Amino acid sequence: MHILVAVLLAAGAAPALAAQCAAASGPATAALVELYTSEGCSSCPPADRWLSAIGGRYSAAQVVPLALHVDYWDYIGWKDPYARREHSLRQRKLSQLQRLALAYTPQVLVGGADFRAWSGPEFDRAVAAINARPARARIELRLLSASPKTVAIGVQAELADAGARRESALYLAAYENRLRSRVIAGENRGRTLDHDHVVLDWQGPLAFDERGRLEDKREVPLLPQAVAEHSGVVAFVQNRRTAEVLQALVLPACSRPRPAR
Questions:
Q1: Nearest 5°: phi and psi at 89?
Q2: Disulfide: which of 69, 125, 179, 182 matches 83 by Cβ 3.0-4.6 Å?
Q3: Which residues pair with 231 in a beta bridge?
Q4: Closest alpha carbon to 235 in 215, 219, 220
Q5: Domain-wise residue ranges, the chain
């Protein structure tokens, strides 16, 4: 996950900060919100703005937002700089699991399920329903150490029911906020678009062991062009058969511990 260096620590920061940069999920389930979007789609900017506003309406314990830019709009004349083929593939796979006729943009998934009423009061009710559920997984993220060129990221997770280990997996997504593009072609030609929670790197699925536990450490190279204070990493556990999200956790750029809620 090459972007994760900037996600958690500014370049050249002391290794001592690593012990202070951590997050742990709480007893309630956070709602993972995935927006599938594209700079080549004229109906997507309102959804992008809606996703950007989520942070001001909900705490990180309630909602964990991600914007996944897809690449299938690139043919129309504008290549989205944040689009990834793997985002398109994930969207199609989740659509197939839910027997949707097609993938579309903007599409919002809440807790792994297609949610078309994202712009109305139904969204608040959906989030509240997810938050009311006891978490079926626990996640911890920690910055272990840092050097001028790399950092070590630690992730731990445990399922409430170890019997669900074969159909459960953990995913990691590095994101950045406050991104801006001047679009010069395609459906949004002439517009300046602002984005938050944009996924720039993705890893998973990571498997659980026989005890329903997962522990991993990853060395990540530094990308000096990324803006550390605008970045973060998300980890979530998902049922690969049903797409239901069992728990989600966000670790923004930080310099002090974030206690479990």
A1: -65, -40
A2: 69
A3: 176
A4: 215
A5: 4-252
